[in-house]
Design goal:
The protein is built from six helices and no strands. With 125 residues, it is mostly helical. The protein has a domain of 80 residues. The radius of gyration is 20 Å and the shape is elongated. The relative contact order is 0.14.
Length: 125
């Protein structure tokens, strides 16, 4: 039972806030992570494996949720201020959401592929 003076360690608080996206430096918490074993094959197969992992998807969604409103406001300021929110506006906003999501997913997955190759001595599988 936790007392009034009990404090949650900072690392655990960060994991709660960032959904496990921070690198695990504590050996005990690293044991909780499933092993990363991408399929054997070329770079694109490994890319697809890492791009479809939950941490990559969550990171892409977070980036897109921050960047999309900024880009939408910059590109459609007049429509927003005059409340002229047509179907075209919403379609363009959805497409605007896809761009930062795709960029974040691509960069995260390619970095994961490079890290995996570095750990395995440069081999694809």
């Amino acid at each position: 039972m936790r007392g009034a003076g009990h404090r949650v360690p900072l690392r655990r608080q960060q994991r709660r806030l960032f959904g496990g996206l921070l690198p695990m430096t504590d050996p005990r918490s690293a044991a909780m992570q499933p092993p990363v074993t991408p399929p054997a094959g070329g770079t694109w197969r490994q890319f697809a494996y890492f791009a479809l992992r939950r941490p990559t998807i969550v990171r892409g969604l977070k980036v897109a949720c921050v960047i999309t409103p900024i880009l939408t406001l910059m590109n459609h300021y007049h429509e927003i201020v005059t409340l002229n929110l047509s179907v075209r506006f919403w379609l363009q906003t959805v497409m605007t959401f896809c761009v930062p999501y795709a960029v974040s997913t691509y960069s995260s997955a390619m970095q994961a592929v490079a890290d995996h190759r570095r750990q395995t001595g440069g081999h694809a599988g």
